[in-house]
Each structure stands twice: as structure tokens, then as C-alpha cells.
Amino acid sequence: MTWQQTQISLPACRRGFHLITDLVLQGIPQIREIKIGLLNVFLMHTSASICINENADPDVPRDLEMSFNKIAPEDFPYIHTIEGPDDMPAHVKAAMLGNSLTIPVKNGNLCLGTWQGIYLCEHRNRAGSRTLTLTLQGEQHS
């Protein structure tokens, strides 16, 4: 059984849902050596989130963004407003989606479905770089 852990910085993204599967895989190339295991992807922020969703149709991330903006609008009478009108809605969205994913690994690949990808869900209007901690556990190929 082997363990690997690394941190990667994602470039600053505009508000919305951004496919990051390739960046995650580039960040932990040791995944190719794993016969069976798990990859935990942990986002170290409270105003962004990560999720797995459809990676084929570009309308999906746009529709997700529109939906979450309706669920947690900026004009809701929040009490926590010191960091701007987009901050508290960002925390609400992050609480709903979460900041951690655990994905099975088989024969050096993530066990994602045909149309699944990992998304950074950026909920702030002007966010900076985001940091992921990638923790890989598994049995290596013999």
C-alpha cells in the first residue's frame, strides 16, 4: 500500500463551473502506478467548491451557475456582508456542494463515468488562485 500527497494551485478563474480533471491528473502523476486505490481531492477554501458532473455539454456548467445563483442570490438579506455581496452566497453554495471528493482509482485511471468530470465551482466574482490537496492511496502494479 502506498500513499502520495501533494498540493496544487489552480489558476484564478472567473465565477462559474470550470472543468479541472486534467489539472488534477497532472498534479499527481503517480496515479498511473496504482492498480487499485482512492484519490481524495480536497479544496482548501470556503467560498468555492468542487463537484463531479457532466463534462461533455458546455451548457451544463452555465445552467449549474444559473441555478445556484437562484438558490443563493446576492440580494438575499444576509448578515455576513463585510466581504461584499458575493461572499455569503459563495459560502452557501460551497456548503451545499462541498470541498472534498473521493474517487476510486483502477489501473492508473480515475473511475469516472463516461460523461463525468471534476469541476472547480468558483462562487466569487474576483477570486484568486485556489489550492487543492491531492491524497492518493492504493496498491501499486506489481
Question: And the CATH topology?
Answer: Jelly Rolls
Query: Poorly predicted ranges (pLDDT <50, ≥5 residues)?
Result: none
Q: Spell out the CATH superfamily.
A: YjbQ-like
> Based on the structure given, which CATH architecture is correct?
Sandwich
List keywords for this structure.
single chain; 142 residues; alpha+beta; Jelly Rolls; 5-stranded antiparallel sheet; 3-stranded antiparallel sheet; 3 helices; 8 strands; 22% helix; elongated
Structure description:
- The protein has 142 residues and is an alpha+beta fold.
- It contains three helices and eight strands, in the order E-E-H-E-E-H-H-E-E-E-E.
- The model has no long low-confidence stretch (mean pLDDT 97).
Topology, please?
Elements: E1 2-10, E2 16-19, H1 21-27, E3 34-43, E4 48-54, H2 59-71, H3 87-97, E5 100-106, E6 109-110, E7 116-122, E8 130-140
Antiparallel strand pairs: 1-8, 2-7, 3-5, 3-8, 4-7, 5-6
